[in-house]
Design goal:
alpha/beta, D-Maltodextrin-Binding Protein, domain 2, 2 domains, 9 helices, 11 strands, binds 1-O-pyrophosphono-5-O-phosphono-alpha-D-ribofuranose
Length: 220
């Protein structure tokens, strides 16, 4: 029987296809999937299910899938209840507090913060002892301070391009984010061997890539 793997669509998927191929898993079908959402690997060992990040959490929590590949941003926002097996050292980005140059962090009064991550934002401002109003936004969060919807945003940034091109400034750096491999607890008991075989394969590739990266940095 194949293990069911929920894979987050989009940026994570693209980077993961490379990592899976480096780990010796043929991804031709994943690369040419078009609009298909369920893809079986050629060797029949893996069944990939393409989903949005928050839905990967739902599938994991309901046991609909055995493992999930999802960002630590989504895991932190939804309070992960399952078993995190591996940091895949991919999809690296960081949470930031950002706004226009006109934003004054120390201004008294209740700030309005736009974000896709209300729980993380709440925890961050609670840690600062500040009571803020949070407006949940589904995408293009950078718009919020530009159109007067919010005083500032809490969002993830990878290259910094979106912030730069929209004249936004980083006021604080929060947690770092990377892609994680997570297993449903029950599935881990029932399919221990298959899940660890998959995890070990990926772990070896991640370790080899990190070692190459370190050598490149040292030779600079
Ligand atoms: C994320 C994030 C930023 C952008 C940052 O959005 O919310 O908008 O990436 O990336 P950068 O620092 O490399 O420019 P995403 O592209 O996932 O889509 P969204 O705006 O629809 O949420």
């Amino acid at each position: 029987m194949s293990i069911r793997i929920a894979l987050t669509k989009g940026r994570i998927e693209k980077k993961m296809v490379e990592l899976l191929e480096q780990s010796g898993i043929n991804c031709n079908k994943l690369r040419n999937k078009k609009r298909k959402l369920i893809i079986n690997s050629n060797d029949g060992k893996y069944c990939f299910i393409l989903a949005k990040g928050p839905d990967v959490i739902t599938y994991l929590n309901t046991g609909t899938v055995d493992v999930g590949i999802v960002g630590s941003d989504i895991l932190a926002e939804h309070n992960n209840e399952q078993c995190e097996l591996l940091d895949l050292q991919s999809g690296k980005c960081q949470f930031v507090l950002a706004s226009t140059a006109a934003f004054n962090f120390d201004r008294p009064g209740r700030k309005v913060i736009g974000t896709k991550y209300p729980a993380i934002t709440q925890r961050y401002f609670e840690s600062l002892g500040q009571d803020v109003e949070i407006v949940k936004i589904e995408g293009s969060v950078e718009l919020a301070p530009l159109i007067g919807l919010a005083d500032a945003i809490v969002d993830i940034t990878e290259t910094g391009t979106t912030l730069r091109e929209n004249n936004l400034i980083v006021y604080d750096y929060l947690d770092k984010v990377s892609t994680r491999l997570v297993a449903n607890r029950m599935a881990l008991k029932q399919h221990t061997e298959e899940i660890f075989e998959f995890s070990d394969r990926l772990e070896k590739t991640v370790a080899a890539n990190s070692s190459v990266q370190r050598q490149m940095e040292e030779s600079k």
